[in-house]
Amino acid sequence: MTYYDDFGGHDTFAKLVHEFYRGVAADEQLRALYPEEDLGPAEERLRMFLEQYWGGPTTYSEQRGHPRLRMRHMPYAVTPDMRDRWLLHMMNAVDSLGLEPEQDDRLRDYLTRAAYSLVNTAGPDGTF
After folding, report:
1. Which CATH number fits domain 3-117: 3.90.1150.10, 3.30.70.260, 1.10.490.10, 3.40.50.300?
2. pLDDT by residue (tens digit) across 22-66?
3. Which of 6, 10, 27, 127 stands the most exposed, by the fewest C-beta atoms within 10 Å?
4. What's the whole-model pTM score?
5. Secondary structure E strands in the chain
């Protein structure tokens, strides 16, 4: 049994990512970081990545190679404000899942750490 299974498998990750991108679509500043007009491909990539990370199918690596998250995000100015916007929408999406407290905490901890690790541009006050 994997965390992927504990979280509820594909349906849970599909719901998480779909709810997250609903928030992104309505957030003009965060949406500007996504170059594609259609958020569908980004939604699919994030879902596949999260499924693989948590022990589900390895489709992400099979299609896209090693995740290399920091490298893949370097072309975008990920500021503390963008991180916080991302986390707002992602935490709202986690809220929609109704996970058991242990799984909820585990998922939120990972997502928060990942968001902080991807900041690559200082905010207006010079802080990361």
Report:
1. 1.10.490.10
2. 999 999 999 988 888 899 999 999 999 999 999 999 999 888 877
3. 127
4. 0.90
5. none
